[in-house]
Amino acid sequence: MRLEINMQSVLSDLPENIKTKLVVSDDYLPSINELIHSSDNVLLITSNGFTKRGYVDEITGYITCNEIHVIDDVTPNPELVYIDSLYKRFAESNISHIIAFGGGSVMDTGKVLCGMLDNKRVSVHQLLEQPIERLQSIALTTIPTTSGTGAEITPFATVWDSVNGKKYSVVNVQASHIILHPQLTVALPYFDTMVTALDALSHAIESLWNVKRNARSICYAQQAITLISDHLLVTLDEPTNLKARSALQNAAFLAGLAISETKTALAHALSYPITLSFNVPHGLACSFTLAALIKRVGAERLKLTQEQVDTLLTLLKSLQLNDKVAKYAAVSELLDAVDQDLDPSRAGNFITSVTPDLVKSVIEESMK
Length: 368
Known about the structure:
This protein is an alpha/beta fold. Helices cover about 50% and strands about 10% of the residues.
């Protein structure tokens, strides 16, 4: 039997420490303003598209605070040197509240910068070398405009160093408030809607074939998978369908909760060198191998029914991810890119041992 999801209660059964952070809003502007103090020095972090579309003017014109600064040049896969430069720029600005308004890269930037400013870590490397226990004084409000990374709720953030071909994961950085407003995702184009939802799907599945999974993470992941299976194609066909958009946003949040417990696994370990080498969008890079890996793990070990697995495989096949990846790199190039030590903090979470033969066969099968 398929797991039925009650859309009214999907986020109501969360632990109290999560529910106290979460605001599900019909109008994000008053929701932001309720969290801001009039004495706050606010830093709004976003990307240039939101300035062009008028969101930055809306936010800065609506909220009441002492002072507001705006960063609107965040790009996909935030770079270490970029975040270091932001610290130098705002270290003496007495920022008391950061608003991260955008996709996963914006929220990762906000989380890392918040951790640096709050704890006087002058560089990302120093933050990595001296991890923080918790944020103390600077509030961080995350407002996702995509339904994918779950970065609004996860306690870690990804930072890239493309010059040296490295990817870092900063830990113990998380939001103090999350505002979910599904209307903000309605304008997301077809491709971006697809790859961000596939990122969320990857998170859910990766938390299931994970040596760190537990009853809580399994529950979050199962709900997220059902929501995406039921609503992704609807959203792609009907981009203004608010019910479907809300379902994907809830799924991304739940999948974020799942990987907060487990972190990701082999599909993400494979994705990092592919993104670094060929600039394949993250959601595509970490999802094109899912079908091949699902077949190897099987429904029983995934804690899913065979019907759920069949539905997933049908969905993934319909999206023709192999053709989309092929626009960035050939099979031989993909194999060369991952012909190196995979990130052990991710590959090591996979439910079975990872061998070169497994990696090679998964990539070859995924690209057929």
